[in-house]
Amino acid sequence: MASKSIATGSILIVLGVVVTIVSDSNSVTSLIPAFVGAAFLLLGIAGNQKPELNHHFMHGSAVISLVAVLGCLGSLIGRSGSGWAVFSQIMTSVICAFFLVLAIQSFKAARAARTPEDA
Description:
The chain is an all-alpha fold. It has one domain. The protein is 80% helix and 0% strand. It is built from 4 helices and no strands. It has helices at residues 2-22, 32-49, 54-78, 83-113. Helix 1 packs antiparallel against helix 2 (32-49).
């Protein structure tokens, strides 16, 4: 799951940087996907570095993805934006929602794989 967190983070960083460049934005808010991506990236790297704590880092990634989805959708519903801002918010919410689904599936599989002695 740590590799998926790293991949998700990398995709979000690229999204934030590309949208900022293409839209010629002077606002730091266009880089929000990149900041969220950096958190995913750092948690994924930490999970690889400390395998015994990986489940904690991946729960952190899942929480970040949930907050990102809710934040993007709330922003999209609450106010209108320009074309690139809307595109960035939709893509961020889709990417984070996809990661969240993968994380939930991974958590369920890990729980099912546990033996009674592990509980």
